[in-house]
Design brief:
Layout lengths: L2 E5 L5 H10 L6 E5 L16 E7 L7 H7 L8 E8 L7 H11 L3 E2 L1 E6 L15 H19 L24 E2 L8 H5 L23 H5 L5 E2 L2 H15 L6 E4 L4
Parallel strand pairs: 1-2, 1-3, 3-4, 4-5, 4-6
Antiparallel strand pairs: 6-9, 7-8
Helix pairs in contact: 1-4
The protein binds flavin mononucleotide and iron/sulfur cluster (2 copies).
């Protein structure tokens, strides 16, 4: 038995959640990074493997690129735990979409988790989460899942979300100011090549998936989003996002 940590984590919050959860298993671990992706990986899962599969909520949905890459894997009846990571607003259909996708490629979903991480656009929401309180809670979820696996508890797994899924939201394309040194790191790490080698300051809005990786990796903090748009959205989100939300566990056979 192996624990696979499979994640799409543009700015690191999703990875942190998976690392905390994965740390609760003593078994051998392997990482599949769906964001820094170099083609179709050669993986063949076994029925007793457990795959923690995590993606962030983008407008209450799984990022389309994460779904596209995930669909290259084959589950072979391995156990999977879909994990939706969100920035303290709502994850809406993210967890359900992740679970549906995993089942469609042959995984057996035994549990689902919705977890909070710092909002990767509006950093004032869920700042520094997952924190120690989250880590305790997530480790507790992992223990409950391990007990359910040992006791071979089976039954339907119901997670929050609706069919048909909501429409994916609008998006923001970051750009750089004149402090940009032209180092090219943003272009090298953009998953859809939206930043041209010829002009690092702008990005192609039609290609950009608003993942915020380019902002996170810029060593001179030269990249930002449109401030007017950000402050307008923050004002609207403030009442919903300022109250601390709890992580959630959904277990197979749980009512
Ligand atoms: C384009 C985009 C859309 C987002 N949509 C939501 C959302 O609908 N609800 C929410 O609570 N957080 C939302 N977030 C916040 C992320 O889900 C959250 O910060 C997550 O931890 C990001 O994962 P990462 O740190 O692995 O990049 C969004 C972030 C981005 C970049
Ligand atoms: S990472 Fe920052 S400094 Fe480097 S090219 Fe991109 S915007 Fe400019
Ligand atoms: S340009 Fe868009 S897709 Fe590329 S790293 Fe930046 S936010 Fe992500």
């Amino acid at each position: 038995m192996k624990i696979y940590k499979i994640y799409f984590s543009p700015t690191g919050g999703t990875k942190r959640v998976v690392d905390i959860l994965g740390g609760a298993w003593q078994d051998e671990k392997e990482v599949i990074d769906l964001f820094s992706w170099n083609g179709i990986p050669e993986y063949s899962f076994d029925g007793d493997d457990i795959c923690l599969v995590a993606a962030p909520a983008f407008g209450g949905r799984v990022p389309a690129l994460a779904i596209e890459r995930l669909k290259k894997l084959r589950g072979n009846s391995a156990m999977a735990i879909p994990v939706a990571v969100y920035g303290n607003r709502d994850y809406e259909d993210t967890l359900l979409e992740l679970k549906d996708t995993l089942e469609s490629i042959g995984f057996h979903c035994i549990a689902g988790i919705a977890a909070i991480a710092e909002h990767s656009i509006f950093h004032q929401f869920a700042a520094n989460r997952p924190d120690e309180e989250d880590a305790e809670e997530l480790r507790g979820f992992a223990m409950k899942i391990q007990e359910a696996v040992r006791a071979a508890i089976h039954g339907p797994l119901t997670v929050k979300g609706n069919h048909p899924y909501k429409e994916a939201g609008s998006h923001l394309t970051p750009f750089a100011d004149d402090t940009c040194t032209g180092c090219g790191l943003c272009a090298a790490q953009c998953p859809v090549k939206a930043i041209s080698e010829g002009d690092f300051r702008t990005a192609d809005a039609d290609k950009c998936i608003s993942c915020m990786r380019c902002i996170a990796v810029c060593p001179t903090h030269s990249r930002t989003n449109d401030e007017a748009v950000v402050s307008r959205v923050v004002e609207g989100l403030e009442p919903i996002c300022s109250v601390r939300k709890a992580n959630e566990l959904f277990l197979e056979g749980m009512r």
